[in-house]
Prior knowledge:
With about 500 residues, the chain is mostly beta strands. It contains two helices and 33 strands. Strand 6 (about 70) and strand 7 form a beta hairpin. It is elongated, with a radius of gyration of 54 Å. Mean pLDDT is about 75; it is low at about 280-335, about 380-440, about 445-470 and about 475-490.
Amino acid sequence: xxxxxxxxxxxxxxxxxxxxxxxxxxxxxxxxxxxxxxxxxxxxxxxxxxxxxxxxxxxxxxxxxxxxxxxxxxxxxxxxxxxxxxxxxxxxxxxxxxxxxxxxxxxxxxxxxxxxxxxxxxxxxxxxxxxxxxxxxxxxxxxxxxxxxxxxxxxxxxxxxxxxxxxxxxxxxxxxxxxxxxxxxxxxxxxxxxxxxxxxxxxxxxxxxxxxxxxxxxxxxxxxxxxxxxxxxxxxxxxxxxxxxxxxxxxxxxxxxxxxxxxxxxxxxxxxxxxxxxxxxxxxxxxxxxxxxxxxxxxxxxxxxxxxxxxxxxxxxxxxxxxxxxxxxxxxxxxxxxxxxxxxxxxxxxxxxxxxxxxxxxxxxxxxxxxxxxxxxxxxxxxxxxxxxxxxxxxxxxxxxxxxxxxxxxxxxxxxxxxxxxxxxxxxxxxxxxxxxxxxxxxxxxxxxxxxxxxxxxxxxxxxxxxxxxxxxxxxxxxxxxxxxxxxxxxxxxxxxxxxxxxx
Length: 504
């Protein structure tokens, strides 16, 4: 059977006309054998009134407390009419006072799945019309959240242990003896259990217990069967839970001589039509419980007992197990959070390590480059006069020399011819002396001139066959404007020339 949405009369989505009043259900809870009012609330109308409710679904039922009078003339008070999208639905009348009575209902053949508006019109001459809740099957795409969801005992989410029996007349399933568990994984904020008490069963009170998320279990009393079968029989309601996925395990504790525990349906508080996926695997049944120590508490007139932990374990589909005092979902979330923190820390350490290694590699590479540059930037050697003495001659014969400017690239050297002497400029501005033409010294000069950059060549005229001097030509950039400054003769036959430049 499909899950149904159950909307209490106190829900704010009901649109009540004037003439309604909200009342507690206490004065009616002990009426009849159809159980107590839902959430102990009712809406009462003792005059003409109506309400409307919009829903997305089908298969609806308007449920309340039937409390009519039928006088000798056959006049019924109150009367009501249910309409869905303006279409009238037949009313269901009963002469006795009963809670959880279906005042009107329809199925999908009458009202198909879809968006609809329910209207209930009431006429009363003073007798109270009592509305309790509206129940319907929601459409698959309906956006229904944080509401009450009804699960019948046949729902596939319920996992029964061995020994549960199906009762006749669709009363539910019963556990005739102790140690029979049933579990449910659900999404919501709590559970309400409703059962039945068949009159043909043993009538002595029995006990049972429930545990939520492996927490300490709570025992409750299963009341003995009275003379009449009891329907919609309230067993227990869990405390309010945080909205989320939870697991409940209920275990019978009676004997075959006591009233059996029966499940007819459950109400999931704060549920949704489409539950989010759980964080861990499905929960399987624990073994039978024993040795429960209890202390009695009595909330809302129902005897319950707070107990110690059940000596059981809960196994998940993944094969992991946890004792009953461990909340499986919280543990899973904690492990997931710890794993994320560890992964993030390791990732950060790896990134820092890679960065440090790159910096070290870059610094070593720069150091090798610097050493290579230092080896290249070595000064050219000087050739002093002490290695090559001056040749005698007229030190003042400056007219015997003609300075030839190399108009081509300073790195292209004209070949010296016999009778010439070469000047070998240094990259640091020092100048080698003029060497005698011809012979070993001349060849050595040519060799040196070929291995170093040369910007100028000194040319000796034939008139200076016998006299040798030195010409010092200062080198600057090698290209530029030719200098017009006069040369300067130095002592010892050295001609000191300023740098010459070519016109760009």
